[in-house]
Amino acid sequence: MVKQLEDQKEAARKNEEETEKLRQQGSEIQSFVRSLIGSKFASLDAQQ
Q1: Degrees to nearest 5, angle at CA 17 with 2 and 14
Q2: First to last CA, the chain
């Protein structure tokens, strides 16, 4: 029983780490896309 609890705690901890990694990746991707879109719009404005 105790072993099972330890395993569950470990699994939960790993889950949280994965979630945190994904969250960081997500925000990096968002800012990357924003900068891409931003520069696209900036160059479109410059062309007009």
Answers
A1: 30
A2: 70
pLDDT one-digit tens code per residue, 1-48: 899 999 999 999 999 999 999 999 999 999 999 999 888 777 767 776
Would you state the pLDDT for residue 5? 94
Residue bearing tokens 């939960």 = 12
Distance (Å, rounded) from C-alpha 21 to C-alpha 19?
5
> CA 15 to CA 36: how far, in whole Å?
31
Prediction pTM value: 0.57
Task: Output the DSSP codes for the chain.
Answer: -HHHHHHHHHHHHHHHHHHHHHHHHHHHHHHHHHHHHHHHHHHHHHH-
